[in-house]
Amino acid sequence: MLRYLTAGESHGPSLTAILDGIPAGLAIDTGYIDLQLGRRQGGYGRGGRMGIEHDFVEITSGVRGGMTTGAPVTLVVNNKDWDNWCDVMASGPNADLESQQVTRPRPGHADLTGAIKYGHLDMRNVLERSSARETAARVAAGSVARQLLEELGIELIGNVVQIGSVKAMTQDLNAKDLERAVLNSSVYCADPEASQAMINEIKQAKDVGDTVGGVFEIKVFGLPAGLGSYSQRDRTLDGRLAGALMSIQAIKGVEVGAGFAAAAIRGSQLHDEIFYDFNSGFYRQTNNAGGIEGGMSNGAPLVLRAAMKPIPTLSRPLYTVDLKNKMPVSAAVERSDTCAVPAASVVGEAVVAWELAVTLLEKFGGDTMREIKERVAAYRQYEKSI
After folding, report:
1. How many CA atoms lie within 13 A of 125 on its CB side?
2. Quick one: which residues bind NADP(+) (predicted)?
3. pLDDT 10s digits, 233-276
C-alpha cells in the first residue's frame, strides 16, 4: 500500500513528508523535486514569503545511491523564515506565546472554525498548520510519485485556464507542446494572449488590495485503461482524484472532462464513440469523458479541472469579530499572495500524480520497479491485442 503523511508548520523549522510503500529501485533525482518545489513558489501574483523561501528537499531515509530501497522515504523541506520565528514557534515551555497572537479570524480561512474545534484562544495554532505552505511537502511527495509514473511512460501537465474573469482558449496540444507553452508563461497558461490578460487582472486586483482566483487543468498522457474500479464506489478513479484535488487549500470545485458543461449537452452529442484499429486497439475520437468511464481510466488522456477561490488574506481586510472580547474589528493580516492559481496547478499535479501512483500499484503490485515495469509493459500489449 502506498501512503504518505506530512507534518510541520508554516513558520516552524521544516516541513516533512514520510512516504511508505515506494517500491525499491526507483531512481530519485532531488534536482527534479527541487524544480517542482520552485515551480510551486513561482507564478505571477505571489507574495513576499516567496522572496524569503527558496525550497530544496533533503532526503533523510529510504534512498541510497540515488535509488529507493523499499524502506520509508523521508523528505524534509526547511523553512528559512524559521530564524525569525524560532522564539514564537518554539516547542519548549519558553516559547513566546504573546507577541504574535492571532485573535481576529480571517473570513474564508480555517482560523475561527479551527479554534472552535481544537479549543485554541490563539488562532496562530490553526493558521500555522492550515496554511498553504504545507503544500510544499505534498509537492515533494508528489514529485516522487511523478518520477515513478514517468518511468512508466505517463506524463502530467498542469495548465492555468482561467484567472478572475479571463478565460484561456482551449489548447489542443500534444504533451510536449503543451508543456513548452506552459513553461513560457509567467502564469502557467498555454494561451499567450490570455496569459497577458491574466497578468493584467492580477495587477488590477493587487492595486486595490484584493485577490483573484481561477481554474487550472491537469492533463495526464499515457495512462493504461483500467485504473480504478466500478466494484466499490470508494475505489472509483474520478472519486479519488476529485478528493485529492479538493484537499488542496482554497479549491472549491472539480471537473472531469466536459464537467458541468455536460449537464447542458444531450447524450448523443456528449458521449465519446468507440472505434478500433488493428494496430493500436480501441480508441475514441473525442474525449468528453476526460479519460474516465465507469470510475476507471479508459486509455484516453485524463482531463481534470479545479476551481480555486480568491485567497482570503487581504491587505484591505474584511470585518470580523475579535475572539477575546467579541468586538467588531478588521481581520488579521498575514503575508499573502494576490493570486496563487499557477502555484496551485503545481500542487494539483502533485496530488494527482500521487493518487495515480496509488491506483497503479494497486492494479499491478510489485515491490521493485523491475516487476512493475514488466507488468505494465505486458498489460499494454494485452490492451492492444484485445
Report:
1. 16
2. 40, 46
3. 999 999 999 999 999 999 999 999 999 999 999 999 999 999 99
Query: Within a domain: residue 333?
Result: yes
- Whether residue 313 is annotated as binding a ligand: the answer is yes
- The answer to the question of residue 90 being in a domain is no
Query: Is 124 annotated as a binding-site member?
Result: no
- Is 251 in contact with 241 (CB distance < 8 Å)? no
Q: Is there a domain that residue 164 lies in?
A: yes
Q: Which of 138, 95, 131, 97 is nearest to 114 (CA)?
A: 131
The sign of the dihedral angle between the CA atoms of 352, 353, 356, 357 is negative
Q: Is 130 annotated as a binding residue?
A: yes
14 is in an annotated binding site: no
| Beta carbons within 8 Å of 384's beta carbon, 6+ residues apart | 279, 280, 281
Is 250 assigned to a binding site? yes
Contacts of 142 (CB under 8 A, 6+ apart): 36, 347, 349, 350, 351, 352, 353, 354
Question: In the numeric block, which cell numbers belong to residue 1?
Answer: 500500500
247 is in an annotated binding site: no
Indicate the number of domains in the chain: 1
In a domain, 88, yes or no: no
Q: Is the entire prediction scored with pTM above 0.90?
A: yes
- Name the residue among 292, 248, 255, 249 with its Cα closest to residue 272: 292
Residue 65 belongs to domain spanning:
3-83+97-385
Is 129 assigned to a binding site? Answer: yes
- 168 assigned to a ligand binding site: no
CATH code (residue 267): 3.60.150.10
* 294 annotated to a ligand binding site: yes
State yes or no: 165 annotated in a binding site: no
Residue 145: exposure state from Cβ atoms within 10 A (0-12, 13-18, ≥19) = buried
206 annotated ligand binder: no
Q: Compute φ and ψ for 68, nearest 5 degrees.
A: -70, 150
Are 226 and 263 a contacting pair, CB within 8 Å?
Answer: no
pLDDT tens-digit series, residues 64-113: 999 999 999 999 999 999 999 999 999 999 999 999 999 999 999 999 99
Bridge partners (DSSP) of residue 293 are 296
